[in-house]
Design a protein that fits this description.
By secondary structure, the protein is an alpha+beta fold. The protein has ten helices and six strands. The protein has a single domain, classed as Cytochrome Bc1 Complex, Chain D, domain 2, CATH 1.10.760. It is 51% helix and 14% strand. The mean pLDDT is 90. Bound molecules: heme C.
């Protein structure tokens, strides 16, 4: 029975690996334990995203606690629309206006880093995958979200990417993107910008992860200690036998 189970597992494993490599994303290397990165990501979010996107579970007071900022710092740097300290991050634009302008209401981003395939890395790749497409209403398209109605709000920073097409089975498809007009940031600087934003959205998706991970380390240390203790105890018990 066990053997058969093993055989099935061995047969299925390569398939699982193949399936996961098909959706290969560039790793973001976002680190939610890097508080400076989270602070920068939060500022980028308020500067460039909060006009359209809300974070319906994220309170400013919780941001202060987790990002190591005072209420005054939050109000000076992050709270842009005079919300109360205990309130959540609300988009400046109403969903109705947004739908009228973009054809689609910008979704709440509280959980986006959790519910996309590839987790937070999806957001990182999304932010790097905008390209010029004159056939789209806003003039932009995105490799990660084909026909996305979000304009490339970071184009001045990243610059302008154009698609390079390749024929596959007679149909042209985008092989890769080429930066044809550089932006204010270098490629590395834009990657870092997108990484900080990704780390922030990953943190927002599960603020408790910060605590959970530090508790996890203590649990592991405890287990190591317990193993040592059990081993010593075993020696003690068997001493008379040998
Ligand atoms: C001008 C309004 C606007 C701004 C500013 C904006 N977005 Fe969007 N965003 C949208 C719209 C509209 C969509 C829906 C796209 C679609 O599904 O076609 C969207 C979708 C997304 C999605 C995909 C969500 C999903 O569930 O599919 C992500 C991720 C995202 N935005 C991140 C960002 C980030 C990060 C910023 C700040 C750098 C930002 N957006 C700024 C309008 C905006």
């Amino acid at each position: 029975m066990i053997k058969r189970l093993f055989a099935v597992l061995l047969a299925v494993l390569p398939l699982a690996v193949l399936a996961s490599s098909e959706t290969a994303l560039t790793p973001s290397y976002a680190n939610i334990n890097d508080q400076a990165s989270l602070q920068r990501g939060a500022t980028h979010f308020m500067d460039y995203c909060a006009g359209c996107h809300s974070l319906q579970y994220q309170r400013y007071s919780r941001l202060a606690k987790d990002l190591g900022l005072s209420e005054e710092e939050i109000n000076t740097y992050l709270n842009r629309n005079g919300a109360k300290f205990a309130e959540t991050v609300v988009a400046s634009m109403t969903p109705g206006d947004a739908t009228a302008w973009f054809g689609k209401a910008p979704p709440d981003l509280s959980l986006v880093a959790r519910n996309k395939p590839g987790g937070a890395d999806w957001t990182y790749n999304f932010l790097k995958s905008f390209y010029v497409d004159e056939s789209r209403p806003a003039g932009w398209n995105n490799l990660m979200l084909p026909n996305a109605s979000m304009p490339h709000v970071l184009w001045e920073l990243q610059g302008i990417q154009r698609p390079v097409y390749e024929d596959s089975e007679g149909l042209p498809h985008v092989a890769h993107l080429e930066l044809t007009t550089p932006g204010k940031l270098s490629v590395e600087e834009y990657d870092a910008f997108a990484r900080d934003l990704t780390a922030f959205l990953q943190y927002v998706g599960e603020p408790a992860a910060l605590e959970r991970e530090s508790i996890g380390i203590w649990v592991l240390l405890f287990l190591v200690f317990l193993t040592l203790l059990t081993w010593l105890l075993k020696h003690e018990y068997w001493r008379d036998v040998y």
